[in-house]
Amino acid sequence: MRFLFAGDFGGQLALFKEDIQYTNAEAVEDAVVCRIYRNDLKTILKHNPEMAYRFLQAMSDRLRDADEWTGSLNLLDADRRIAKVLLNFGTRGDPTPGSHKLPVAKKDLAALLGIAPETLSRELAYFDEQGWISLSGKKGVEIKNVNALQKIANGMPN
Q1: pTM
Q2: In this structure, are residues 100 and 141 in contact, taking their beta carbons and an 8 Å threshold?
């Protein structure tokens, strides 16, 4: 459904509603996971208004991102979806400017984007031919032209 990067959090629904949770997570690389219990979080938020406000901001950001992602999957062409996800990975994933590894295999990324693996491969090859990205190995991607990807993601002619 989505990727979490350093500093992100998940499972927040379980913190505020006692219900069966149907979600799970899988680390695709080494990770450190922190757990907080519902009652501990309630106490923290009750006694720390600044923390409560920052948590609400983070939840608001998460809702905005979910709305954007849903819109992307339903309304955007494959090239725009791919450009958006590459830009997202480029800013939130690997801290090395421009160069990063895809967090999952291309077939899994295609499934996340709601496109066929062949479409993903074809579009990535096209982006590479245009000089907007450089592909290396199975997961290596270097963004060569952020402006071009931003134009694609925004539906502007390149």
Answers
A1: 0.62
A2: yes
